[in-house]
Amino acid sequence: MFHISEEEINQVRQNADIVEIISSYIPLNQKGKNYFGVCPFHEDHSPSMSVSREKGIYKCFSCGATGNVFKFVSDYENITFPEAVQKIAQKIGITLSITTEIKKITKYEIEYKIMTLSNLFYQNNLMTEKGKKAREYLENRGLTEEIQKEFQIGLAFDKNSLSEFLHQKNYENSLLISLGLLNQKKEFFYDTFLDRIMFPIHNLNGDVVGFTGRIYLPNSSPPKYLNSKETMIFKKGNILFNYHRAKDPIRLEKKVILVEGNMDAIRMYSCGFKNTIALMGTSLTSYQIKEIKKLRVPVILMFDNDDAGFTATYQIGTLLEKENIPIHIVRLSGEKDPDDYLLKNGIEAMQNNIKHAISFIEFKLNYFKRNKNLQDSEELAAYIKEVLKGMKENTDPILKEITLKKLSNDYDISMELLISELDHIKEKEQKQNEKIKVSQEEQKIIKKTKYTDSIFHILYFMMNDPIYIKMYKKNLGFIDQATYRGIANEILAYYEFHKCINLADFLTFAENSKLKKEIYEIVTSINDETIDETIMEEYIMSVKKIRKQNEIKQLKEKLKLEMDSNKELEIVKRIAELKKEV
Asked: Which of 113, 7, 25 is nearest to 75 (CA)?
Protein backbone atom coordinates (compact mmCIF):
# COMPACT_ATOMS: atom_id res chain seq x y z
CA MET A 1 0.00 0.00 0.00
CA PHE A 2 1.33 3.45 -0.87
CA HIS A 3 1.49 6.40 1.53
CA ILE A 4 0.55 10.04 0.89
CA SER A 5 1.68 12.77 3.28
CA GLU A 6 -0.90 14.70 5.26
CA GLU A 7 0.29 17.97 3.69
CA GLU A 8 -0.38 16.63 0.18
CA ILE A 9 -3.77 15.22 1.21
CA ASN A 10 -4.80 18.63 2.53
CA GLN A 11 -3.44 20.31 -0.59
CA VAL A 12 -5.58 18.05 -2.82
CA ARG A 13 -8.67 18.51 -0.64
CA GLN A 14 -8.34 22.30 -0.58
CA ASN A 15 -7.84 22.52 -4.36
CA ALA A 16 -10.55 20.02 -5.28
CA ASP A 17 -13.92 21.65 -5.88
CA ILE A 18 -16.30 19.16 -4.24
CA VAL A 19 -19.20 20.32 -6.44
CA GLU A 20 -17.23 19.73 -9.64
CA ILE A 21 -15.92 16.34 -8.49
CA ILE A 22 -19.29 15.00 -7.33
CA SER A 23 -21.09 16.41 -10.38
CA SER A 24 -18.75 14.30 -12.54
CA TYR A 25 -20.46 11.27 -10.97
CA ILE A 26 -24.05 12.44 -10.43
CA PRO A 27 -26.04 15.46 -11.74
CA LEU A 28 -26.26 18.37 -9.26
CA ASN A 29 -28.61 21.36 -9.27
CA GLN A 30 -28.04 24.54 -7.29
CA LYS A 31 -30.65 25.58 -4.72
CA GLY A 32 -29.53 28.59 -2.74
CA LYS A 33 -25.90 28.30 -1.71
CA ASN A 34 -25.88 24.46 -1.83
CA TYR A 35 -26.20 21.89 -4.61
CA PHE A 36 -28.58 18.91 -4.57
CA GLY A 37 -28.58 15.55 -6.32
CA VAL A 38 -30.01 12.05 -6.13
CA CYS A 39 -28.00 10.14 -3.51
CA PRO A 40 -26.11 7.19 -5.08
CA PHE A 41 -25.75 5.39 -1.74
CA HIS A 42 -29.40 4.31 -1.39
CA GLU A 43 -32.47 3.92 -3.60
CA ASP A 44 -33.20 7.64 -3.90
CA HIS A 45 -36.03 8.92 -6.11
CA SER A 46 -35.86 12.62 -5.26
CA PRO A 47 -32.69 14.68 -4.68
CA SER A 48 -31.83 14.21 -0.99
CA MET A 49 -28.06 14.73 -1.11
CA SER A 50 -26.82 18.23 -0.34
CA VAL A 51 -23.32 19.33 -1.40
CA SER A 52 -21.77 22.38 0.24
CA ARG A 53 -18.93 24.05 -1.65
CA GLU A 54 -18.39 26.38 1.32
CA LYS A 55 -17.92 23.57 3.85
CA GLY A 56 -16.42 21.05 1.43
CA ILE A 57 -18.80 18.26 2.47
CA TYR A 58 -21.85 16.38 1.20
CA LYS A 59 -24.72 15.03 3.28
CA CYS A 60 -27.73 12.89 2.45
CA PHE A 61 -30.75 13.83 4.55
CA SER A 62 -32.36 10.48 3.84
CA CYS A 63 -29.77 7.72 4.40
CA GLY A 64 -27.25 9.78 6.39
CA ALA A 65 -24.29 9.34 4.00
CA THR A 66 -21.85 12.15 4.69
CA GLY A 67 -18.22 13.12 4.27
CA ASN A 68 -15.77 15.13 2.21
CA VAL A 69 -14.71 14.72 -1.41
CA PHE A 70 -12.37 11.81 -0.60
CA LYS A 71 -15.12 9.90 1.20
CA PHE A 72 -17.52 10.34 -1.72
CA VAL A 73 -15.08 9.05 -4.35
CA SER A 74 -13.89 6.23 -2.06
CA ASP A 75 -17.45 5.02 -1.39
CA TYR A 76 -18.76 5.63 -4.92
CA GLU A 77 -15.92 3.77 -6.65
CA ASN A 78 -15.37 1.28 -3.81
CA ILE A 79 -11.68 2.15 -3.56
CA THR A 80 -9.40 2.83 -0.60
CA PHE A 81 -8.93 6.31 0.87
CA PRO A 82 -5.37 6.72 -0.59
CA GLU A 83 -6.64 5.57 -4.01
CA ALA A 84 -9.41 8.20 -3.82
CA VAL A 85 -6.83 10.91 -2.98
CA GLN A 86 -4.68 9.79 -5.92
CA LYS A 87 -7.67 9.74 -8.31
CA ILE A 88 -8.79 13.25 -7.32
CA ALA A 89 -5.21 14.56 -7.56
CA GLN A 90 -5.07 13.28 -11.15
CA LYS A 91 -8.40 14.94 -11.96
CA ILE A 92 -7.22 18.36 -10.76
CA GLY A 93 -3.66 18.08 -12.07
CA ILE A 94 -1.69 17.69 -8.83
CA THR A 95 1.30 15.30 -8.89
CA LEU A 96 1.78 13.37 -5.65
CA SER A 97 5.12 12.20 -4.26
CA ILE A 98 3.83 8.75 -3.31
CA THR A 99 6.03 6.62 -1.05
CA THR A 100 5.76 3.01 0.06
CA GLU A 101 3.94 2.78 3.35
CA ILE A 102 5.58 0.82 6.15
CA LYS A 103 3.01 -1.82 7.03
CA LYS A 104 1.64 -1.38 10.53
CA ILE A 105 1.67 -4.34 12.88
CA THR A 106 -1.88 -5.64 12.99
CA LYS A 107 -3.60 -7.67 15.66
CA TYR A 108 -3.10 -10.88 13.69
CA GLU A 109 0.28 -10.08 12.12
CA ILE A 110 1.79 -13.44 13.15
CA GLU A 111 -1.24 -15.41 11.94
CA TYR A 112 -1.14 -13.73 8.50
CA LYS A 113 2.59 -14.38 8.27
CA ILE A 114 2.12 -18.10 9.02
CA MET A 115 -0.59 -18.40 6.36
CA THR A 116 1.64 -16.62 3.81
CA LEU A 117 4.56 -18.94 4.62
CA SER A 118 2.28 -21.98 4.35
CA ASN A 119 1.03 -20.80 0.96
CA LEU A 120 4.60 -20.32 -0.34
CA PHE A 121 5.55 -23.75 1.04
CA TYR A 122 2.65 -25.45 -0.78
CA GLN A 123 3.50 -23.59 -4.03
CA ASN A 124 7.11 -24.74 -3.80
CA ASN A 125 5.96 -28.36 -3.24
CA LEU A 126 3.98 -28.28 -6.50
CA MET A 127 7.08 -27.35 -8.50
CA THR A 128 9.19 -30.25 -7.15
CA GLU A 129 9.65 -33.67 -8.76
CA LYS A 130 7.18 -35.07 -6.23
CA GLY A 131 4.58 -32.61 -7.49
CA LYS A 132 4.71 -33.91 -11.08
CA LYS A 133 1.45 -35.95 -10.85
CA ALA A 134 -0.39 -32.99 -9.32
CA ARG A 135 0.84 -30.70 -12.11
CA GLU A 136 -0.26 -33.24 -14.72
CA TYR A 137 -3.67 -33.47 -13.07
CA LEU A 138 -4.05 -29.67 -13.13
CA GLU A 139 -2.94 -29.41 -16.77
CA ASN A 140 -5.39 -32.18 -17.75
CA ARG A 141 -8.09 -30.11 -16.07
CA GLY A 142 -7.11 -27.14 -18.26
CA LEU A 143 -5.30 -25.25 -15.48
CA THR A 144 -2.10 -24.18 -17.18
CA GLU A 145 1.14 -23.25 -15.42
CA GLU A 146 0.19 -19.59 -15.86
CA ILE A 147 -3.14 -20.13 -14.06
CA GLN A 148 -1.41 -22.16 -11.35
CA LYS A 149 0.89 -19.23 -10.63
CA GLU A 150 -1.91 -16.63 -10.91
CA PHE A 151 -4.00 -18.45 -8.28
CA GLN A 152 -0.94 -19.54 -6.22
CA ILE A 153 -2.01 -23.19 -6.42
CA GLY A 154 0.14 -25.53 -4.33
CA LEU A 155 0.46 -29.08 -3.05
CA ALA A 156 0.31 -30.72 0.39
CA PHE A 157 2.52 -33.82 0.61
CA ASP A 158 1.50 -37.11 2.22
CA LYS A 159 3.42 -36.48 5.46
CA ASN A 160 3.60 -33.75 8.11
CA SER A 161 5.97 -31.62 6.07
CA LEU A 162 4.17 -28.28 6.62
CA SER A 163 4.20 -28.49 10.42
CA GLU A 164 7.87 -29.58 10.35
CA PHE A 165 8.67 -26.53 8.21
CA LEU A 166 6.77 -24.18 10.53
CA HIS A 167 8.36 -25.74 13.64
CA GLN A 168 11.72 -24.73 12.17
CA LYS A 169 10.39 -21.17 12.18
CA ASN A 170 9.61 -21.58 15.94
CA TYR A 171 5.81 -21.61 15.59
CA GLU A 172 4.10 -23.72 18.24
CA ASN A 173 1.53 -26.46 17.69
CA SER A 174 -1.19 -24.55 19.57
CA LEU A 175 -0.97 -21.67 17.09
CA LEU A 176 -0.95 -24.00 14.06
CA ILE A 177 -4.02 -25.83 15.43
CA SER A 178 -5.85 -22.51 15.95
CA LEU A 179 -5.19 -21.67 12.28
CA GLY A 180 -6.52 -25.03 11.08
CA LEU A 181 -3.15 -26.16 9.68
CA LEU A 182 -2.60 -28.89 12.26
CA ASN A 183 -4.86 -31.42 13.98
CA GLN A 184 -4.39 -33.36 17.21
CA LYS A 185 -5.63 -36.83 18.14
CA LYS A 186 -4.67 -37.64 21.73
CA GLU A 187 -0.88 -37.06 21.76
CA PHE A 188 -0.51 -37.40 18.00
CA PHE A 189 -0.23 -34.27 15.78
CA TYR A 190 -0.75 -34.37 12.02
CA ASP A 191 -1.10 -31.86 9.16
CA THR A 192 -4.73 -31.03 8.30
CA PHE A 193 -4.06 -31.20 4.57
CA LEU A 194 -2.33 -34.33 3.24
CA ASP A 195 -1.99 -35.43 -0.39
CA ARG A 196 -4.13 -32.59 -1.70
CA ILE A 197 -3.82 -29.85 -4.30
CA MET A 198 -4.06 -26.59 -2.36
CA PHE A 199 -6.04 -23.52 -3.38
CA PRO A 200 -5.39 -20.50 -1.12
CA ILE A 201 -8.34 -18.42 0.07
CA HIS A 202 -7.75 -14.68 0.36
CA ASN A 203 -9.74 -12.08 2.27
CA LEU A 204 -11.04 -8.97 0.51
CA ASN A 205 -7.66 -7.23 0.99
CA GLY A 206 -5.74 -10.11 -0.62
CA ASP A 207 -4.28 -11.71 2.56
CA VAL A 208 -4.18 -15.52 2.66
CA VAL A 209 -6.56 -16.64 5.43
CA GLY A 210 -7.34 -20.28 4.58
CA PHE A 211 -7.16 -23.11 2.07
CA THR A 212 -9.25 -25.49 0.02
CA GLY A 213 -7.57 -28.86 -0.51
CA ARG A 214 -8.67 -31.15 -3.38
CA ILE A 215 -7.84 -34.84 -3.80
CA TYR A 216 -6.16 -35.71 -7.09
CA LEU A 217 -4.88 -39.29 -6.80
CA PRO A 218 -7.19 -42.15 -7.93
CA ASN A 219 -7.03 -43.99 -4.60
CA SER A 220 -7.57 -40.89 -2.40
CA SER A 221 -10.05 -40.97 0.45
CA PRO A 222 -13.01 -38.54 0.50
CA PRO A 223 -14.02 -35.82 1.00
CA LYS A 224 -13.29 -34.52 -2.50
CA TYR A 225 -12.76 -30.98 -1.13
CA LEU A 226 -11.53 -30.07 2.35
CA ASN A 227 -11.76 -26.45 3.54
CA SER A 228 -9.93 -24.73 6.38
CA LYS A 229 -11.98 -24.43 9.54
CA GLU A 230 -13.12 -20.97 10.57
CA THR A 231 -10.46 -19.18 12.59
CA MET A 232 -9.77 -15.75 14.04
CA ILE A 233 -8.78 -14.52 10.54
CA PHE A 234 -11.01 -16.76 8.38
CA LYS A 235 -14.78 -16.25 8.51
CA LYS A 236 -16.58 -17.77 5.50
CA GLY A 237 -19.32 -15.14 5.71
CA ASN A 238 -16.72 -12.37 5.26
CA ILE A 239 -15.06 -13.88 2.18
CA LEU A 240 -15.87 -13.52 -1.50
CA PHE A 241 -13.44 -15.80 -3.30
CA ASN A 242 -11.32 -14.03 -5.95
CA TYR A 243 -12.65 -10.58 -4.93
CA HIS A 244 -9.17 -9.04 -4.57
CA ARG A 245 -8.34 -10.00 -8.20
CA ALA A 246 -11.77 -9.29 -9.67
CA LYS A 247 -12.53 -5.84 -8.23
CA ASP A 248 -10.71 -3.90 -10.97
CA PRO A 249 -12.16 -6.00 -13.85
CA ILE A 250 -15.60 -5.56 -12.24
CA ARG A 251 -15.23 -1.78 -12.50
CA LEU A 252 -14.19 -2.07 -16.15
CA GLU A 253 -16.94 -4.55 -17.13
CA LYS A 254 -19.55 -2.70 -15.02
CA LYS A 255 -20.99 -6.02 -13.81
CA VAL A 256 -20.04 -8.84 -11.45
CA ILE A 257 -20.61 -12.56 -11.98
CA LEU A 258 -21.35 -14.48 -8.77
CA VAL A 259 -20.79 -18.26 -8.82
CA GLU A 260 -20.95 -20.98 -6.16
CA GLY A 261 -17.51 -22.57 -5.97
CA ASN A 262 -13.81 -21.74 -6.04
CA MET A 263 -13.16 -23.86 -9.14
CA ASP A 264 -16.01 -22.12 -10.98
CA ALA A 265 -14.41 -18.74 -10.25
CA ILE A 266 -10.94 -19.95 -11.26
CA ARG A 267 -12.24 -21.43 -14.52
CA MET A 268 -14.26 -18.32 -15.37
CA TYR A 269 -11.33 -16.01 -14.59
CA SER A 270 -8.86 -18.10 -16.59
CA CYS A 271 -11.24 -18.04 -19.60
CA GLY A 272 -11.36 -14.26 -19.62
CA PHE A 273 -14.37 -13.65 -17.35
CA LYS A 274 -12.19 -11.85 -14.83
CA ASN A 275 -15.13 -10.10 -13.13
CA THR A 276 -16.12 -13.36 -11.38
CA ILE A 277 -16.29 -13.94 -7.62
CA ALA A 278 -17.56 -16.93 -5.64
CA LEU A 279 -19.34 -17.71 -2.39
CA MET A 280 -17.70 -19.91 0.21
CA GLY A 281 -20.31 -22.64 0.47
CA THR A 282 -22.61 -20.44 2.55
CA SER A 283 -25.70 -18.38 1.87
CA LEU A 284 -25.11 -14.71 1.23
CA THR A 285 -24.38 -12.86 4.49
CA SER A 286 -25.16 -9.24 5.29
CA TYR A 287 -21.40 -8.51 5.21
CA GLN A 288 -21.05 -9.96 1.70
CA ILE A 289 -24.16 -8.10 0.51
CA LYS A 290 -22.67 -4.85 1.82
CA GLU A 291 -19.43 -5.46 -0.10
CA ILE A 292 -21.30 -6.37 -3.31
CA LYS A 293 -23.51 -3.29 -2.95
CA LYS A 294 -20.40 -1.10 -2.70
CA LEU A 295 -19.43 -2.21 -6.22
CA ARG A 296 -22.57 -0.46 -7.55
CA VAL A 297 -22.83 -2.74 -10.58
CA PRO A 298 -25.46 -5.29 -11.69
CA VAL A 299 -24.98 -8.87 -10.44
CA ILE A 300 -25.21 -11.92 -12.69
CA LEU A 301 -26.04 -15.04 -10.66
CA MET A 302 -24.65 -18.21 -12.23
CA PHE A 303 -25.20 -21.13 -9.86
CA ASP A 304 -25.14 -24.89 -10.32
CA ASN A 305 -27.62 -26.43 -12.72
CA ASP A 306 -29.46 -28.54 -10.11
CA ASP A 307 -32.38 -28.13 -7.70
CA ALA A 308 -30.12 -26.74 -4.97
CA GLY A 309 -28.68 -24.17 -7.41
CA PHE A 310 -32.18 -23.27 -8.60
CA THR A 311 -33.33 -22.61 -5.02
CA ALA A 312 -30.10 -20.74 -4.12
CA THR A 313 -30.58 -18.47 -7.15
CA TYR A 314 -34.03 -17.48 -5.90
CA GLN A 315 -32.98 -17.04 -2.24
CA ILE A 316 -29.81 -15.03 -2.96
CA GLY A 317 -31.51 -13.06 -5.74
CA THR A 318 -34.24 -12.07 -3.29
CA LEU A 319 -31.66 -10.85 -0.75
CA LEU A 320 -29.92 -8.74 -3.40
CA GLU A 321 -33.21 -7.41 -4.76
CA LYS A 322 -34.17 -6.12 -1.30
CA GLU A 323 -31.00 -4.02 -1.43
CA ASN A 324 -32.07 -2.63 -4.84
CA ILE A 325 -29.14 -4.30 -6.58
CA PRO A 326 -29.90 -5.02 -10.29
CA ILE A 327 -29.86 -8.79 -10.90
CA HIS A 328 -29.70 -11.01 -13.98
CA ILE A 329 -29.70 -14.78 -14.08
CA VAL A 330 -27.81 -17.33 -16.16
CA ARG A 331 -29.02 -20.95 -15.90
CA LEU A 332 -26.53 -23.17 -17.73
CA SER A 333 -28.07 -26.14 -19.51
CA GLY A 334 -26.46 -29.54 -19.97
CA GLU A 335 -23.64 -29.23 -17.41
CA LYS A 336 -23.66 -29.06 -13.63
CA ASP A 337 -21.63 -25.89 -13.10
CA PRO A 338 -19.65 -23.13 -14.92
CA ASP A 339 -16.41 -25.13 -14.60
CA ASP A 340 -17.81 -28.15 -16.49
CA TYR A 341 -19.75 -25.95 -18.92
CA LEU A 342 -16.65 -24.05 -20.06
CA LEU A 343 -14.61 -27.26 -20.42
CA LYS A 344 -17.24 -28.87 -22.64
CA ASN A 345 -18.82 -25.91 -24.47
CA GLY A 346 -16.11 -23.27 -24.61
CA ILE A 347 -15.80 -19.52 -24.12
CA GLU A 348 -18.07 -18.41 -26.95
CA ALA A 349 -21.01 -20.42 -25.59
CA MET A 350 -20.49 -18.87 -22.15
CA GLN A 351 -20.34 -15.37 -23.65
CA ASN A 352 -23.65 -16.05 -25.39
CA ASN A 353 -25.23 -17.16 -22.09
CA ILE A 354 -24.08 -13.99 -20.34
CA LYS A 355 -25.27 -11.85 -23.25
CA HIS A 356 -28.76 -13.40 -22.97
CA ALA A 357 -29.00 -13.41 -19.16
CA ILE A 358 -32.62 -13.06 -18.05
CA SER A 359 -34.06 -10.59 -15.53
CA PHE A 360 -34.73 -11.75 -11.98
CA ILE A 361 -38.47 -11.22 -12.48
CA GLU A 362 -38.40 -13.53 -15.51
CA PHE A 363 -36.52 -16.11 -13.46
CA LYS A 364 -39.13 -15.87 -10.69
CA LEU A 365 -41.93 -16.54 -13.18
CA ASN A 366 -40.32 -19.94 -13.78
CA TYR A 367 -39.33 -20.51 -10.16
CA PHE A 368 -42.88 -20.06 -8.80
CA LYS A 369 -44.19 -22.64 -11.28
CA ARG A 370 -42.30 -25.42 -9.50
CA ASN A 371 -44.52 -28.28 -8.31
CA LYS A 372 -47.67 -26.46 -9.39
CA ASN A 373 -50.44 -27.68 -11.65
CA LEU A 374 -51.44 -24.47 -13.42
CA GLN A 375 -54.49 -26.20 -14.89
CA ASP A 376 -55.92 -26.21 -11.36
CA SER A 377 -57.66 -22.88 -10.52
CA GLU A 378 -56.52 -22.74 -6.89
CA GLU A 379 -52.88 -23.53 -7.76
CA LEU A 380 -52.96 -20.99 -10.60
CA ALA A 381 -54.31 -18.33 -8.20
CA ALA A 382 -51.54 -19.20 -5.69
CA TYR A 383 -48.96 -18.90 -8.48
CA ILE A 384 -50.25 -15.47 -9.60
CA LYS A 385 -50.14 -14.18 -6.01
CA GLU A 386 -46.59 -15.46 -5.54
CA VAL A 387 -45.46 -13.70 -8.71
CA LEU A 388 -47.11 -10.43 -7.63
CA LYS A 389 -45.52 -10.64 -4.18
CA GLY A 390 -42.19 -11.27 -5.88
CA MET A 391 -42.65 -8.10 -7.96
CA LYS A 392 -43.09 -5.71 -5.05
CA GLU A 393 -39.32 -5.25 -4.54
CA ASN A 394 -38.62 -4.38 -8.18
CA THR A 395 -38.55 -0.68 -9.07
CA ASP A 396 -38.33 -0.96 -12.88
CA PRO A 397 -41.74 0.23 -14.21
CA ILE A 398 -41.15 -1.10 -17.75
CA LEU A 399 -40.26 -4.58 -16.48
CA LYS A 400 -43.34 -4.56 -14.25
CA GLU A 401 -45.57 -3.58 -17.17
CA ILE A 402 -44.13 -6.37 -19.34
CA THR A 403 -44.58 -8.95 -16.55
CA LEU A 404 -48.17 -7.92 -15.83
CA LYS A 405 -49.07 -8.04 -19.54
CA LYS A 406 -47.49 -11.49 -19.82
CA LEU A 407 -49.54 -12.77 -16.87
CA SER A 408 -52.66 -11.17 -18.30
CA ASN A 409 -52.19 -12.69 -21.77
CA ASP A 410 -50.99 -16.13 -20.63
CA TYR A 411 -53.76 -16.72 -18.11
CA ASP A 412 -56.57 -14.49 -19.43
CA ILE A 413 -56.70 -12.23 -16.34
CA SER A 414 -57.54 -8.54 -16.67
CA MET A 415 -54.71 -6.03 -16.21
CA GLU A 416 -56.96 -4.00 -13.89
CA LEU A 417 -57.33 -6.95 -11.49
CA LEU A 418 -53.59 -7.68 -11.50
CA ILE A 419 -52.70 -4.02 -10.86
CA SER A 420 -55.30 -3.82 -8.08
CA GLU A 421 -53.90 -6.95 -6.38
CA LEU A 422 -50.31 -5.68 -6.74
CA ASP A 423 -51.30 -2.31 -5.20
CA HIS A 424 -53.01 -4.16 -2.34
CA ILE A 425 -49.85 -6.20 -1.64
CA LYS A 426 -47.72 -3.03 -1.75
CA GLU A 427 -50.08 -1.15 0.55
CA LYS A 428 -50.03 -3.96 3.09
CA GLU A 429 -46.23 -4.13 2.95
CA GLN A 430 -45.95 -0.33 3.26
CA LYS A 431 -48.12 -0.26 6.39
CA GLN A 432 -45.96 -2.94 8.00
CA ASN A 433 -42.78 -1.03 7.09
CA GLU A 434 -44.23 2.23 8.45
CA LYS A 435 -45.00 0.53 11.77
CA ILE A 436 -41.43 -0.73 11.96
CA LYS A 437 -40.04 2.71 10.97
CA VAL A 438 -42.15 4.53 13.56
CA SER A 439 -40.98 2.07 16.23
CA GLN A 440 -37.33 2.61 15.22
CA GLU A 441 -37.73 6.40 15.23
CA GLU A 442 -39.32 6.24 18.68
CA GLN A 443 -36.34 4.22 19.92
CA LYS A 444 -33.94 6.81 18.45
CA ILE A 445 -35.80 9.65 20.17
CA ILE A 446 -35.71 7.82 23.51
CA LYS A 447 -32.05 6.96 23.08
CA LYS A 448 -30.84 10.45 22.16
CA THR A 449 -31.26 12.61 25.26
CA LYS A 450 -31.18 16.38 25.39
CA TYR A 451 -27.72 16.16 26.95
CA THR A 452 -26.35 13.99 24.09
CA ASP A 453 -27.98 16.25 21.51
CA SER A 454 -26.26 19.29 23.04
CA ILE A 455 -22.90 17.48 23.11
CA PHE A 456 -23.33 16.48 19.44
CA HIS A 457 -23.94 20.11 18.45
CA ILE A 458 -21.02 21.40 20.51
CA LEU A 459 -18.62 18.90 18.92
CA TYR A 460 -20.04 19.56 15.45
CA PHE A 461 -19.54 23.32 15.91
CA MET A 462 -15.97 22.70 17.12
CA MET A 463 -15.20 20.73 13.93
CA ASN A 464 -16.22 23.74 11.85
CA ASP A 465 -14.39 26.74 13.29
CA PRO A 466 -11.69 27.62 15.89
CA ILE A 467 -14.11 30.13 17.50
CA TYR A 468 -16.13 27.26 18.95
CA ILE A 469 -13.02 25.43 20.16
CA LYS A 470 -12.10 28.53 22.17
CA MET A 471 -15.66 28.78 23.54
CA TYR A 472 -15.53 25.11 24.57
CA LYS A 473 -12.17 25.52 26.34
CA LYS A 474 -13.27 28.69 28.12
CA ASN A 475 -16.84 27.77 29.11
CA LEU A 476 -16.99 23.97 29.32
CA GLY A 477 -13.58 22.33 29.03
CA PHE A 478 -14.72 18.79 29.84
CA ILE A 479 -17.27 16.21 28.68
CA ASP A 480 -18.36 13.51 31.11
CA GLN A 481 -18.82 10.65 28.62
CA ALA A 482 -15.49 9.08 27.64
CA THR A 483 -16.32 8.61 23.92
CA TYR A 484 -17.36 12.23 23.32
CA ARG A 485 -14.56 13.50 25.56
CA GLY A 486 -12.19 11.52 23.30
CA ILE A 487 -13.64 13.24 20.20
CA ALA A 488 -13.29 16.67 21.86
CA ASN A 489 -9.65 15.86 22.66
CA GLU A 490 -9.00 14.82 19.05
CA ILE A 491 -10.49 18.11 17.83
CA LEU A 492 -8.31 20.04 20.28
CA ALA A 493 -5.20 18.08 19.27
CA TYR A 494 -5.94 18.64 15.57
CA TYR A 495 -6.35 22.38 16.14
CA GLU A 496 -3.20 22.66 18.29
CA PHE A 497 -1.15 20.96 15.56
CA HIS A 498 -2.63 22.69 12.49
CA LYS A 499 -3.61 26.04 14.08
CA CYS A 500 -6.80 25.90 12.02
CA ILE A 501 -9.80 23.62 11.48
CA ASN A 502 -12.65 23.07 9.06
CA LEU A 503 -15.05 20.18 8.79
CA ALA A 504 -13.81 18.76 5.44
CA ASP A 505 -10.17 18.57 6.60
CA PHE A 506 -11.10 17.19 10.00
CA LEU A 507 -13.04 14.37 8.29
CA THR A 508 -9.85 13.48 6.40
CA PHE A 509 -8.10 13.22 9.76
CA ALA A 510 -11.03 11.12 11.11
CA GLU A 511 -10.34 8.39 8.52
CA ASN A 512 -7.53 7.12 10.78
CA SER A 513 -9.28 7.76 14.09
CA LYS A 514 -10.49 5.00 16.41
CA LEU A 515 -13.59 7.17 16.90
CA LYS A 516 -14.30 7.49 13.15
CA LYS A 517 -17.72 5.84 13.46
CA GLU A 518 -18.79 8.15 16.30
CA ILE A 519 -17.45 11.26 14.51
CA TYR A 520 -19.49 10.43 11.39
CA GLU A 521 -22.52 9.71 13.58
CA ILE A 522 -22.31 13.28 14.91
CA VAL A 523 -21.84 14.85 11.47
CA THR A 524 -24.69 12.79 10.01
CA SER A 525 -27.14 13.60 12.82
CA ILE A 526 -26.80 17.40 12.62
CA ASN A 527 -29.15 18.72 9.94
CA ASP A 528 -29.20 22.32 11.18
CA GLU A 529 -27.05 24.44 8.88
CA THR A 530 -27.17 27.45 11.27
CA ILE A 531 -23.96 27.81 13.28
CA ASP A 532 -23.27 30.89 15.40
CA GLU A 533 -21.85 31.82 18.80
CA THR A 534 -25.25 32.45 20.43
CA ILE A 535 -26.44 28.94 19.61
CA MET A 536 -23.14 27.48 20.86
CA GLU A 537 -23.62 29.31 24.16
CA GLU A 538 -27.12 27.87 24.48
CA TYR A 539 -25.82 24.30 24.02
CA ILE A 540 -23.02 24.89 26.54
CA MET A 541 -25.54 26.29 29.06
CA SER A 542 -27.78 23.28 28.44
CA VAL A 543 -24.93 20.86 29.21
CA LYS A 544 -23.98 22.79 32.35
CA LYS A 545 -27.60 22.82 33.51
CA ILE A 546 -28.04 19.07 32.99
CA ARG A 547 -24.73 18.43 34.79
CA LYS A 548 -25.96 20.40 37.80
CA GLN A 549 -29.32 18.62 37.76
CA ASN A 550 -27.51 15.30 37.76
CA GLU A 551 -25.29 16.46 40.62
CA ILE A 552 -28.40 17.45 42.61
CA LYS A 553 -29.84 13.95 42.13
CA GLN A 554 -26.56 12.36 43.27
CA LEU A 555 -26.38 14.61 46.33
CA LYS A 556 -29.98 13.79 47.28
CA GLU A 557 -29.15 10.07 47.15
CA LYS A 558 -26.03 10.71 49.23
CA LEU A 559 -28.11 12.72 51.75
CA LYS A 560 -30.36 9.73 52.39
CA LEU A 561 -27.36 7.66 53.52
CA GLU A 562 -25.43 10.37 55.42
CA MET A 563 -25.37 9.93 59.26
CA ASP A 564 -23.15 12.90 60.17
CA SER A 565 -25.29 16.03 60.83
CA ASN A 566 -22.50 18.44 59.86
CA LYS A 567 -22.00 16.70 56.52
CA GLU A 568 -25.78 16.63 56.02
CA LEU A 569 -25.81 20.43 56.39
CA GLU A 570 -22.98 20.81 53.85
CA ILE A 571 -24.88 18.65 51.31
CA VAL A 572 -28.10 20.64 51.85
CA LYS A 573 -26.21 23.91 51.31
CA ARG A 574 -24.60 22.56 48.13
CA ILE A 575 -28.00 21.40 46.79
CA ALA A 576 -29.43 24.88 47.48
CA GLU A 577 -26.51 26.54 45.64
CA LEU A 578 -26.94 24.25 42.63
CA LYS A 579 -30.70 24.84 42.50
CA LYS A 580 -30.08 28.56 42.52
CA GLU A 581 -27.57 28.23 39.65
CA VAL A 582 -29.97 26.04 37.65
From this structure: 25
